[in-house]
Design a protein that fits this description.
5-stranded antiparallel beta sheet, 12 helices, 20 strands, 6-stranded antiparallel beta barrel, alpha+beta
Length: 395
């Protein structure tokens, strides 16, 4: 999932208001819903691909889907094969056709967290460019129903060679298609395995997952609209940075400071855009403010590893510090937070001009789950976002 001096918390009224305002601003983005890479100068340093489709043979491919895959020149037998060599060479060309009913509630609950953990050695490698470890912050449960308090936040499900897996994500605005965004922000490692693999398959976004925050036992008999109040949204395009694709690893690696991704999604059922359906989306702040400028940041997500179980949404709010994996790599943001795997890809927000904007996403963290680190979103991230918006946003 996720992999330093944290400035001393600013004393006085301003800091308190910043934290309170962050939560309030996010809540105000939601509307009530009772229903349920080329490196040319004009192109981003990123690679885009239609996400791969079938889950490693775990789901039977319907005849009509097999036909559609063949139309795209894809060998169905090879499609189901997660052999590393074939995965690397073929997955980039795969499409992600909607497989209705694949992500049933029980399959979602079986998904394992996508985890990126740094070792003590990794964490100390760039210590000279970072700040001391932050004090741990205990995650707070988000208020329910989620569609009223944090509608843009949801879960990202996908199939990996090891089976179903889960991350978190956020609905973000599409500046080139106002009011009709189909874009979701998440971590690069939630869509692509990095230097040792390829694109994941069956990538689906579920906004406001488990809307009422029901317990695991209660979800056994829950109405599907409570689990997925806005339905399932399939990624028909995914984009992440070349740095993640080439340098990402199990502990984040050199790709960690570039561990971000944008999905373009379409509904499993329905015709409206994601933003219209959810009623909310967040702006993305690409100014890459320094940790000292950010005052407070909040991380939202669905932690799935113990002591959490992935069924409820949580948040951590803290004053960010700097984290470095290497003096040669860009520094990352870091906050105290005990959220675990599954919160990967979840958005980090700060208050800008009175409203919450997405400024980062959960990338890496330590084995003892005391903090989270996320990339600074600068010009490379903005170029990736703009390319996704302009190329696929209107589809």
């Amino acid at each position: 999932m996720r992999s330093t001096p944290v400035p001393a918390p600013r004393r006085g009224r301003r800091t308190v208001l910043a934290a309170a305002g962050l939560v309030a601003a996010l809540a105000l983005t939601a509307t009530a819903c009772e229903g349920s890479g080329d490196s040319a100068s004009d192109q981003p340093d990123a690679t885009s691909s239609q996400a791969a489709a079938n889950g490693g043979g775990k789901a039977r491919i319907p005849a009509d889907l097999a036909g559609r895959l063949k139309e795209h020149g894809i060998d169905v037998d090879r499609w189901k094969d997660w052999d590393k060599d074939k995965w690397l060479s073929d997955a980039k060309d795969f499409v992600n056709p909607v497989i209705k009913g694949l992500w049933k509630p029980e399959r979602m609950q079986s998904a394992d967290e996508a985890d990126k953990r740094v070792t003590t050695k990794d964490a100390s490698a760039g210590q000279g460019a970072g700040d001391p470890d932050p004090a741990p912050v205990r995650a707070q449960a988000e208020k329910t129903p989620y569609h009223r308090n944090a509608a843009p936040v949801g879960k990202v499900f996908f199939d990996s060679p090891d089976g179903p897996a889960v991350c978190s994500g956020t609905v973000v605005k599409d500046v080139n298609h106002p009011g009709k965004s189909n874009l979701v922000w998440t971590a690069g490692h939630c869509v692509h395995a990095g230097g040792n693999g390829g694109w994941y398959r069956n990538i689906v976004f579920v906004p406001a997952y488990n809307d009422r925050g029901r317990s695991e036992a209660e979800l056994t008999d829950a109405d599907p609209t409570e689990i997925a109040p806005y339905g399932n949204w399939w990624a028909n395009w995914a984009s992440t940075s070349n740095q993640w694709i080439q340098g990402g690893s199990e502990s984040g690696g050199d790709g960690a400071p570039y561990d971000y991704a944008v999905l373009h999604v379409k509904p499993e059922q329905g015709a409206k855009s994601l933003e219209e359906t959810v009623g909310a989306a967040l702006d993305v702040d690409f100014s890459a403010p320094s940790a000292a400028e950010a005052a407070k940041m909040g991380a939202w997500g669905y932690p799935a590893a113990p002591p959490y179980n992935g069924e409820k949404m949580f948040r951590c709010i803290d004053v960010p510090g700097r984290f470095s994996l290497s003096p040669s790599l860009p520094t990352m943001y870091r906050i105290g937070c005990d959220m675990t795997g599954g919160s990967s890809g979840g958005g980090w927000f700060r208050v800008l001009n009175g409203k919450s904007v997405l400024v980062s996403n959960t990338s890496i963290g330590p084995a003892d789950n005391t903090w989270l680190a996320g990339p600074q979103l600068g010009r490379d991230a903005e170029a990736l976002y703009q390319n996704m918006s302009k190329t696929y946003g209107g589809q």
